[in-house]
Amino acid sequence: MTASPAPGLDEIVASAHVLSLPMRTRFRGITTREVLVFSGPAGWGEFGAFPEYDDAEASAWLRAGIEMAWQGAPDPMRDHVEVNATVPAVPAAEVPAVLARYPGTRTAKVKVAEKGQTLADDVARVEAVRALVPTVRVDANGGWTVDQAETALRALTENGDLEYAEQPCATVEELAEVRRRVRGVSIAADESIRRAEDPLRVVRAGAADVAVVKVPPLGGVRAVLRLAEELAQYGVPVVVSSALDSAIGMSAGLAAAAALPTSTACGLGTGALFVTDVAEPRALVDGRLRVDTVVPDADRLRELAAPDDRRAWWLERLARCHPLALL
Ligand SMILES: O=C(O)CCC(=O)c1ccccc1C(=O)O
Ligand SMILES: [Mg+2]
């Protein structure tokens, strides 16, 4: 496909919808996910930077949405992508109900280190997941100190393996220290990889065995593919994850995972966390999602429309980020 010229702001605004997607369970501290979606000559794109992100960071998310809507996805290597179940920091007793939303998944990613909870809560949740799913990853979202991470990772591997621990601590230096101290558990970097220059810093510091990559903060599918190529030279595999994207944004994550030379279970199953999405939810069959693009459903766009003040907020943000996204 020939790339269309970069769109003007008015072209994006012309098709823009600001949506508020209700969530089944609190995740990342939120219960509704706001996104702005728009269409271009190649299809639909999403601008969904979390509200607390500044314009410089948010503009990468817009660039990713513009790429999908004006350029489309690169050629895929496969038509289905394996995903992990994403288990929020729920009580252990709720784990079977959460996992039931991810039929056939053989890998689960479990949130740990949630504020207000204890290590015993994490151990109980992880054990409940292990009873049902063969491969378990945990994600601490930077919530532990190095000492806490060491204690927790030992406790969490007493009765079984962890494939990896995602972002156990906040900084690159701390990740490297945990990786040295807890040799038996692989470390994945997530929040430490937000800009294109971050992954090599993480790898050079010896801070991670695995890189979690997300299309929106990295500025698009092609940017993720370039990064993955660089990381492969250091022997660091990538895991493509969502940024709690709507079904439209998820198309970009699926496109990235589908275009990689190899793909392990991706964190792209988070559509299951929404009560209602912008389109009919993708069917999760045998733990895999079909790689496709979606057109939002007109009724859902109306039903999910964000309140006027939020629409105004997103349109102002779009106007500020637009010139930065095209740089
Ligand atoms: O990786 C997954 O399983 C789902 C994606 C996910 O966890 C996530 C989604 C939005 C924001 C942050 C995160 C995260 O990995 O911490
Ligand atoms: Mg993470």
Automatic annotation (TrEMBL):
Known SMART domains for this protein? Answer: MR_MLE (SM00922)
* Coiled-coil regions, chain positions: none
Q: Which residues form the active site?
A: 111 (proton donor), 214 (proton acceptor)
Q: Which reaction does it catalyse?
A: (1R,6R)-6-hydroxy-2-succinyl-cyclohexa-2,4-diene-1-carboxylate = 2-succinylbenzoate + H2O
Q: Which domain of life is it from?
A: Bacteria
EC numbers for this chain: 4.2.1.113
Q: Which PANTHER family match?
A: O-SUCCINYLBENZOATE SYNTHASE (PTHR48073:SF2), O-SUCCINYLBENZOATE SYNTHASE-RELATED (PTHR48073)
- Kindly provide the name given to this protein in its UniProt entry: o-succinylbenzoate synthase
Please name the source species.
Rhodococcoides corynebacterioides
The organism's lineage is: Bacteria, Bacillati, Actinomycetota, Actinomycetes, Mycobacteriales
Report the gene name: menC
